Amino acid sequence: MSQTTNRHFLTSTFASLQWFVFIFANTIVVPISIGAAFALDSQMIAELIRNSLAITGIACVLQGVVGHRFPLLEGHSGLMWGLVLNLCYSADAVGMSLVEIGGGIATGMLISGAIVAVLAALNGLRFMQKIFTPMVMSVFLFLLTFQLVMIFFEGMFKRTADGLIEWPETLLALAVAAFVSMLKIIGSEKLGNFSILIGIVVGWVLHMMLFPAGESVPASASVMSITLFPLGVPNLNIPIIVVTCIATLINLSNSITAVTTAAQLFGEDAPQSRLNRSYLLNGLYSMAGGVLGLVTHAPFASTIGFLQSTRILDRRPFLIGGMLMVGTGLLPMMSGVLATMPVTIGNAVLLVAYFQLLGTSLSSIRGWVFNSITIHRIALPVLVGLGVLSIDPAYFQDIPALVQPLLSNGFIVGVLLSIVLELLVPWDRKNSGL
């Protein structure tokens, strides 16, 4: 009996560490990139990292305990992350300073977060399920899979300041990705379940051995401070506020897709009450993000791929992993040390973890029957969205700068196109012939 207890304890411990690594790897790059885009100094970037780790951990725990109550990573939304970066990069084109854009984003996050929180508390977001139908969510999953794989694959390539590829580090990242894949494919069930954790540890150790002159812990990591509105004081920049609010509402599709898909995986129901609690927390996180200069949080539908890859569905390791994130964010030196994790290794492991998401995407259309007309229902938004994802954003430079972030984002374009098709086309009538 004691051996069984010990095995359970070890399994739970490693599962918790793996969740912590997974949450951390999905979080760390966001505040670093935001700080760099807004030209913040190293101390402010270190503060963004600490705030990001702590808030993400809190967000995960609250969603797991009182929100939707599924073990789903509550991380910085990829949609909102891309929007913030695009708005930042368009500063010169629209004749605004970074501080003005940051202040407008903060205002938009505060307003949209408050609206979402109030509507969720009053059960006023039921219409979201009518907009984000099962087919729209299938499109969402397909585009999310392609977008993440493209991001993580590119992230494995180490580049110099001149844009040249540093092949030694890149080859190590590719080798780590292959190693984690082999653990999952031909390894034992135990090794497969902990392939993510093993890959991070092995990759990080090898990186330190082969490239000892890597990142060092910044001196500012030991300084504990909180700065309100680090990206800019809230202002009334209406165009930026409107774009941010629209993206925040679209971002709610993350909650619907993630919670609905998780419910199917766990064989449970996803009642409106769970979604309302998730929406409410999302609104509060958006407001906190506006104050602290963080990207809006959302449940990661991509976590389903992680759950399917590890086959560990217990909620407790997820909650422990979230609490470890909170502790890391509150201990400046710890967050500084972990911030030195090689980005190429993190991307390599996440790439393999999200291979499973393609299976989730395919399962989402199981049972659907398509003919030469109705195939457009999924092909049109997915392929158009993928096409926009694959072309140079410079193609959109002649479009008004304030709508560039929406129209140049293939993920947003595909989801919006799917919504329009579902609302305007009577697909059921067209499903009766070739």
Taking strands numbered 1, 2, ... along the chain, how are they ordered across the largest sheet? Answer: 1-2
Name the shape in a single word.
globular
How many domains, as an integer? 1
Q: What kind of sheet is the major sheet?
A: 2 strands, antiparallel
Task: State mean pLDDT (0 to 100 scale).
Answer: 83
Query: Distance N terminus to C terminus?
Result: 62 Å
Please give the number of β-strands: 2
Extract low-pLDDT stretches: none
Rg calculated over all Cα atoms? 21 Å
Report strand %: under 5%
Put simply, the count of helices is 21
**Helix fraction bin:** 55-70%
Descriptive account of the structure:
This protein is mainly α and 434 residues long. It has helices at 2-27, 29-37, 42-65, 78-89, 91-94, 98-121, 127-131, 134-155, 167-186, 189-193, 195-210, 238-266, 272-292, 303-310, 315-330, 332-338, 343-353, 356-364, 376-390, 404-407, 410-424; strands at 74-76, 297-299. A two-stranded antiparallel ribbon has the order 1-2. The longest helix has 29 residues, at 238-266. The mean pLDDT is 83.
Key words describing this protein structure:
434 residues; 2 strands; two-stranded antiparallel ribbon; 70% helix; mainly alpha
Compact summary:
With 434 residues, the chain is an all-alpha fold. The chain has 21 helices and two strands.
SSE arrangement:
Blueprint: H1 2-27, H2 29-37, H3 42-65, E1 74-76, H4 78-89, H5 91-94, H6 98-121, H7 127-131, H8 134-155, H9 167-186, H10 189-193, H11 195-210, H12 238-266, H13 272-292, E2 297-299, H14 303-310, H15 315-330, H16 332-338, H17 343-353, H18 356-364, H19 376-390, H20 404-407, H21 410-424
Antiparallel strand pairs: 1-2
Helix pairs in contact: 1-15, 2-3, 2-4, 3-13, 3-15, 4-12, 6-12, 6-13, 8-17, 8-18, 8-19, 8-21, 9-11, 9-17, 11-17, 12-13, 14-18, 19-21
